[in-house]
Structure formats: C-alpha cells, structure tokens
Amino acid sequence: MKQAHTWIPQVTQDGSFTFFSEEFGETFHSQQGARAEAFTKFVHATQLVQKAKHDRLRLLDICYGLGYNTAAALETIWQINPACQIEMYGLELDATVPRAAIEPRLIERWSLQVQAVLTAIAINHQYQQSGLTAQLIIGDARQTIQMLCQSRFQADAIFFDPFSPRRCPQLWTVEFFQQVSQCLAADGRLATYSRSASVRSAMLAAGFSIGTIPVKESHLPHEWSQGTVATFDASSLQPLSQLEQEHLQTRAAIPYRDPSLSDSAEVISARHQQEQQQSQRESTSSWRRRWGIV
Ligand SMILES: C[S@@+](CC[C@H](N)C(=O)[O-])C[C@H]1O[C@@H](n2cnc3c(N)ncnc32)[C@H](O)[C@@H]1O
C-alpha cells in the first residue's frame, strides 16, 4: 500500500507554489514560476487565446497535479468567451496531489470561478456547471488514456506534463504517445515543456508533426527552447532550429519504448540505455561541443 504524502508547498520565482515529489525526486513545476509555466508552455503553446473564440472546446490535462494548466486554460478561455462550452478531462495517478493543492494560499490567485472548479475537481473528481463539464480520472495514465480513446474523445488542446523523461520514462514512450495521438482532434495541439530529443523522436514515431516553443529575447546557448508542440498539421508549427534538428540525429534521440504499456520505469530505462549503447549515432556530447552548449 502506498504511503499517504504530506505535500509541502514551495514558492517559485513568480510567487506561485509548487510541490516536491520524493518519489520522483523533482518539483512539479519550473522554479522560474509554476503559474507562469502554465500560461507560457501550455495555454499559449496550444493557442487557446485564438481557440477560445470557438463555441466549444475540449481539453485534456495529462498529469493534472495541482491543476495549474487547467486553471490557466479556464482563466484564458473565460476572459475571452465566457459562453464557451468546455469539456475537460484530467488524468492523474495520485488523488492526494489535487486535494492538497486547494488550500487557500495555493489557489487564491485564481478567479473565484476557477477556484470553485479546482475545489470540486479535487474533492469530487468532477464539476458540471455553467458551460463546463470536467472530470478527473485517477489511475495510471497509460491505462486511463485507453478509456478515453475508446470513448472517442477528441481534444482541441492537450497539456502533456509528466515528470521528466529520466524520472518518469513510462509517460514519454512511443507507445504512450500513440495512445495520446488518438485523443487529439485533427486540428488540435499538444504542448509540453520538454525539448528532449528522445521525447521529440517518440512523438515523430507516433505520427505527430513537431515544432518548438521558442525562447524569448536573449538567451544562453543551453536554453534553446521552452518545449515542444505536437500536431497533425506541420504548417501551423514553429519549425525546429538547425541546432534542434541536429539534436534529433544524436544518440539522445533514441526514444523510450514500453510495448505493453505496463513496464516499470526501471525496465523502460534499462531498455533505452541498452539501445543507446548499441547505437552508431553521433554522441550527444559531440553535438553539444559543436553548438557551444556547456
Ligand atoms: C510534473 S507534475 C504535473 C504538474 C501539473 N500539471 C500541475 O500543473 O500542477 C506530474 C504529475 O504526474 C502525476 N503522475 C505520475 N505518474 C503518473 C502516471 N503514471 N499516470 C498519471 N499521472 C502520473 C504525478 O502524481 C504528478 O501529479
């Protein structure tokens, strides 16, 4: 039986809070700002500002966590089009996370309407009122996504937010992206904070076209992108830079595999490591040297 966690809020640089997971050895958000990350890497990258003008929107929040990506999406859509009919699904393994995330100081920066949604989702795992139908499905997303696929749910925007590939490889595999791709509408967009070559090649292998989430203004050589957008329509994407394209030719671009969608992180990582060791591709350190990335 899994032990119940005590989630201790940690403040990030924009004043919003995140949690640290002992199990995965990572914080839930970027230290630069949990709330800011939700808007930049998920809401803006999936073009919800433009899509909010539609009568109806369908959202899929993979790894719901504290619910920031859903909250930022609802704030954005309701500001532009309060009449939009929204259908939202969240997938999350651990119900204690959203439950711990609704204490007043954690949600007070969201509007009262969004606070009510986050609270209902955390307590009842659902919300149905004033144009929004939301449901939180608790379980391993590798299984729960299959239920959504069977129901033929098609999302206009997917927020893809697991812990990093090194810590949680099971949610960055070709096979999981194949499942996820079945839940994305033909003109939908999936966004993630990851710019990892293994993630990008898994997305390509699953049939997506991919683009970058560009960095703003001046940046250091190692900050080449803020994440990745996946679609079925390459023309709407910001193309990868030469540096990013060459990254996809290196050993780092060997994707994670999980043929049965049920292997442990250890098994998936060991399989990946073995494939990397046998690869004749350019090493990632040589690619880094060529591009002056330290
Ligand atoms: C980086 S955090 C997500 C942060 C979240 N999007 C937010 O805005 O707060 C990753 C989340 O994935 C969940 N998770 C880990 N493994 C999972 C799995 N196999 N299926 C579904 N969720 C999982 C964790 O419990 C955690 O809440």
TrEMBL record:
A biological-process GO annotation: methylation
Residues of the MnmC-like methyltransferase domain: 112-212
Keyword field contains Methyltransferase: yes
Matching InterPro entries: MnmC-like_methylTransf, SAM-dependent_MTases_sf
Source superkingdom: Bacteria
Keyword Methyltransferase among record annotations: yes
Pfam family, one: Methyltransf_30
Example GO molecular function: methyltransferase activity
Keyword annotations of the record: Methyltransferase, Transferase
Sequence segments annotated as region (Disordered): 265-294
Biased segments, Low complexity type: 275-286
PANTHER family to which the protein is assigned, alphabetical: MNMC-LIKE METHYLTRANSFERASE DOMAIN-CONTAINING PROTEIN, SLL0983 PROTEIN
The protein, known as: MnmC family methyltransferase
